[in-house]
Design a protein that fits this description.
The protein has 243 residues and is α/β, with parallel strands linked by helices. The protein is 44% helix and 26% strand. A hairpin with a 5-residue loop joins strand 6 and strand 7.
């Protein structure tokens, strides 16, 4: 098993905050229902009902926002669990923030081993995804629960991970750490049909494909233990650890 260094998952923190707000928002509605339906309290005026309605709308809004984050959280959890199965000489980091020239990037996963440094951008999208590796946006075609078809845009994950690679590589160079950094896009959802060809950044759809790519990867020079130690020390400094 790989050595896993877990960081705080800010998606989970945000989702938990949305859930708490949603639960608080529904309390006035429940209180009003109990007061009227159970205790037969006579409520005069429209203000209590308007307040309860507003609270219900706020609750529904934040519930939907939380629901929107759920696939991303599930994808990151799955990718971390899969990466943890790499051999024990690998280090796996999640939820890193790296900045360069005043601009920051959130890195889902970074895998470090003698084969090199791999930045893994995790996507849990489903449906048919089409585009070109140089496009700024790709199109995701989906089928809804009632059979309706719709499409939406998503930012090109190849460009996204390439920016992350650039910023991490610059940080390593500034610290005189010689290591090639390679980007990977990992589609964790088995219902994703990605119809995009990429020449520089591989796109994998399973743990087997990810492991195969890393194991077959031929760096210009493998990393020695001292270099790996320097990289892991730097990455730990960029990770907000789980309390």
């Amino acid at each position: 098993m790989a050595q896993v260094h877990r960081g705080r998952n800010h998606l989970k923190i945000t989702a938990r905050r949305y859930l708490n707000i949603s639960l608080l928002g529904i309390l006035p509605v429940l209180g009003l229902m109990v007061a009227v339906g159970v205790y037969n309290v006579q409520i005069t005026g429209v203000q209590p009902y308007l307040f309860a309605m507003l609270s219900a709308l706020v609750s529904a809004y934040f519930w939907r926002k939380r629901k929107f984050l759920t696939p991303g959280i599930a994808g990151e959890d799955l990718a971390l669990a899969i990466s943890a199965k790499l051999p024990d000489h690998y280090h796996v980091f999640n939820n890193l923030r790296v900045a360069y020239d005043g601009q920051g990037s959130e890195l889902d996963l970074v895998i470090v081993g003698d084969q090199g440094v791999f930045v893994v951008e995790v996507k849990n999208h489903n449906g048919t995804i089409v585009g070109h590796e140089r496009d700024n946006e790709w199109t995701q075609h989906k089928v809804g629960r009632n059979g309706g078809r719709y499409s939406k845009q998503m930012y090109n994950p190849i460009k996204q991970v390439s920016t992350q690679v650039f910023r991490l590589a610059k940080n390593l160079q500034e610290r005189k750490i010689g290591a090639w950094v390679q980007g990977v896009v990992f589609f964790t959802n088995p219902k994703a049909d990605v119809k995009v060809q990429s020449t520089d950044v591989p796109m994998v759809a399973s743990g087997q494909e990810l492991f195969a790519y890393i194991n077959r990867y031929q760096p210009r020079q493998k990393l020695d233990g001292k270099t790996i130690e320097k990289i892991t020390k730097f990455l730990l400094s960029k990770q907000e650890r789980v309390a």
